[in-house]
Amino acid sequence: CLATLVIMLVGDTYTLINYVSFINYLCYGVTIIGLIVLRWKKPKIFRPIKVNLLIPITYLAFWAFLLIFSLYSEPVVCGVGLIIILTGVPVFFLGVYWRNKPKCVNRLIESVTCWGQKLCFVVYPQGGVAEEE
Fold first, then answer.
1. Are the beta carbons of 10 and 16 closer than 8 angstroms?
2. Element (H, E) at 102
3. Residues 57 and 36: beta-carbon distance below 8 Å
């Protein structure tokens, strides 16, 4: 949310579209690389849809061209896009990887989560309590 607010302060729609498109292309390419790695390392797992490997390899060739061209033509925008992605790394380590958090940190995370759920109207129902009609 904070990164989105900072990006909104830029005010230039063209730059915002470039940030988002670079991030999207990067994530799509990493997903396709994951598909190829799983096909190579775990060929026997169940796949509801199996695609010929020529399709993702061809996609990766175009993906690499687009990414290299983007990095060459607008390195600052791509750098900002990478920084936006990397802002999630500390959040991951503080929220997910760090298992033995102090109780005050857990309470803070729970209160921020509850506040965010109420703000966005996405509160999950609590188990064990019957809803009143």
1. yes
2. none
3. yes
Q: Which distant-in-sequence residues (6+ apart) come within 8 Å of 95 by Cβ?
A: 109
In degrees to the nearest 10, what's the CA dihedral of 72, 73, 79, 85?
A: -100
Q: Which residue has the higher pLDDT, 42 or 121?
A: 42
Domain boundaries, the chain: 1-120
Q: How far apart are the first and last CA of the chain?
A: 35
Is the sign of the CA dihedral 24, 2, 90, 81 positive or negative? positive
Give the residue ranges of DSSP H helices in the chain: 2-8, 13-41, 54-73, 75-86, 88-92, 103-120
Question: Residue 56's closest CA among 75, 70, 79, 38?
Answer: 38
Distance CA 54, CA 60 (A): 10
* Whole-number Å distance between alpha carbons of 96 and 102: 14
pTM: 0.59
- pLDDT above 60 (res 60): yes
